[in-house]
# Entry
Amino acid sequence: MDEIEPKMPAGRGFERLIEIMARLRSPNGCPWDREQNFDSIKPYLLEETYEVMDAIDARDLDGLAEELGDVLLEVVFFAQMAAEEGRFDIADSLQAINSKLVRRHPHVFADGNARTSEDVKVRWDEIKAQEKARPKGTLEGVPRSLPALVEAKQIASRAAGVGFDWENVDQVFDKLQEELGEIQQARKDGPEGAIEDELGDMLFVIVNIARFLKVDPEQALRKTNAKFRRRFGHVEEGLAAQGKAPKDATVAEMESLWQQAKSRKL
# Structure
């Protein structure tokens, strides 16, 4: 029979999670948990983060509650391993984020002034720059391990922050047209690898269009992916009702069902 932990106040519930993880990592705990290290747990943190995003996209708030707990598990897992090595514990992590939030919101916790969200962002970046050692280059603080769209957005934003930017979004659209022409040229007579290079340039320009229009390109693409899944699922269901599989249908038949899904706002 499954053991169900009682719901506790948030503070006590967090302490309970810490206790459970410490026991799992103890000599008499779980063999799998004891074998893990910082590198082996990294993929699970990434996986759980994307599952949180999926739950948000689906507006599955019950699922989101569970997925956020899974993320907390990975956080506590890392902190437990660090504590075992005598480097830091979860209390240090909590102190760090609490102190950071207070420092970077002087308009709330001190006598700072910020009337708009843009004022808040500017002040946050100023305080962050004061706190952290200045990197050798403008872009060196952007992790290379980020998803490509996220990395592109961050490095473009940082370059823009030091003045390397277009004046307006119309100029970025002009650049997009230029890149489209270069891709067409690469298709005709470009050397090996030219198409990939030009396509990368075009994607980078599209990220900058999103930046000017204040749209998160990663989130925009995730929403489009989800929309495609829904509509193609409708196509498959419609074909199945006719006793067909997609490989047996014509493009016209599939397009008709696709337009049907589109008209239904799927």
Q: What stands out?
A: The two ends are 41 Å apart (CA to CA). The chain is about 70% helix and 0% strand.
